[in-house]
Specification:
This protein is mostly helical. It has helices spanning about 1-10, 15-30, 40-60, 70-85, 100-105, 110-130, 135-170. The longest helix has about 35 residues, at about 135-170.
Length: about 180
């Protein structure tokens, strides 16, 4: 966002700098095996609202909705997980462990920091691709959504059974889909 703002000046730079510093402090205390000051959803949701505001303002100022690609990794995971839960007739307001990152951390036993780093690096690559590649934004956006949507579906096809195994063990041998 700092790079885009340097080029387009869509928002006050101090706003992004202070937000970036807050994220760095948050990461200093939380991007480790055992968090020192765990903020859970409160921290993530707070940062998400700030980023949604900044990207929303960028889209309005530039009159270009394709900047939504800055949320590709998280957006594809969220939207397709919601679709999956709807297909399973689950109550969307109840807790679950069906996101790709949750399956990576819980069922595949990948360290949370590794999962976070993978998501961060993928999104960073997508974002810089959007900014730097000489391609129409809408073409790039469609390609990224298709690639990551397909990757999500392939990942779930390969590893979702592990989540079902977890649910069976949790429910004493019977898989119960909550309606």
């Amino acid at each position: 966002m700092l790079y885009v703002n340097y080029k387009t000046r869509f928002i006050d730079m101090p706003f992004l700098i202070v937000t970036g510093l807050a994220v760095l402090v948050f990461c200093f205390y939380n991007f480790r095996k055992k968090a020192k000051c765990f903020a859970g959803d409160v921290g993530a949701i707070g940062v998400a609202f700030i980023l949604i505001f900044a990207v929303g303002k960028l889209m309005v100022v530039e009159n270009d909705l394709t900047y939504i690609v800055f949320f590709t990794v998280y957006g594809v995971d969220t939207v397709l997980t919601i679709c999956h839960r709807i297909l399973l007739h689950e109550h969307l307001g109840e807790a679950h462990r069906k996101h790709a990152y949750q399956i990576m951390a819980n069922e595949l036993k990948m360290p949370h920091t590794l999962v976070s780093a993978i998501y961060m690096l993928m999104q960073l690559a997508i974002s810089f691709g959007m900014i730097l590649l000489p391609m129409k934004h809408w073409v790039y956006m469609c390609v990224m959504f298709a690639v990551f949507g397909s990757a999500y579906l392939l990942f779930m096809r390969k590893y979702y059974y592990l989540h079902e195994v977890y649910l069976k063990s949790k429910n004493n041998g019977t898989l119960i889909a909550k309606i």
